[in-house]
Amino acid sequence: MTHPVPRMTPEEAQAWLGLIRVCDLLPSELDSQLQRDSAMTHFEFGVMTYLRWMPESTASMSEIAEATNATLSRLSHVCSRLERRGLVQKSTSPADRRVSRVTLTNAGRRELVRATPGHIATARRLVIDALSPEDLADLARITAKLGEQLDPEQRFATGR
């Protein structure tokens, strides 16, 4: 007994493959720019940005992992690298010694501030400036809809 394989229409395939192409290409472009200009990866930039907006620039490893969609193992390696560079400081929570915390240092804040203009310029060059205002509105609407589908609990909702 054979089962028919579902197919996409040409329009569906074009949209799907276009999305996959962007999802595959954009992260490496962001990484390349940040590594070249600021000696950090896009993931490191994201971790440091998250910490910057937390009270006292501090969060638990679990909070950061959830906010960045990372495993604790990956995050631990990244935070160790950032700590060796003096950009973050790891510590144990005084309330619960089982909880590891990470704090953005003053040096980390300076590096993040230094990296941000180039990162924004790259985002503009690769995405924002390539689209009309109508396209940007469509992109915002489409990504919001896809975000709701992929993240029903809104763990990664923008504006938080």
Automatic annotation (TrEMBL):
Domain of life: Bacteria
Domain HTH marR-type stretches: 12-148
Pfam families the UniProt entry points to: MarR_2
Xref: SMART domains: HTH_MARR
InterPro entries named among the record's database cross-references: HTH_MarR-typ, MarR/SlyA-like, WH-like_DNA-bd_sf, WH_DNA-bd_sf
Gene3D superfamilies attached to this UniProt entry: Winged helix-like DNA-binding domain superfamily/Winged helix DNA-binding domain
Protein name (Swiss-Prot/TrEMBL): MarR family winged helix-turn-helix transcriptional regulator
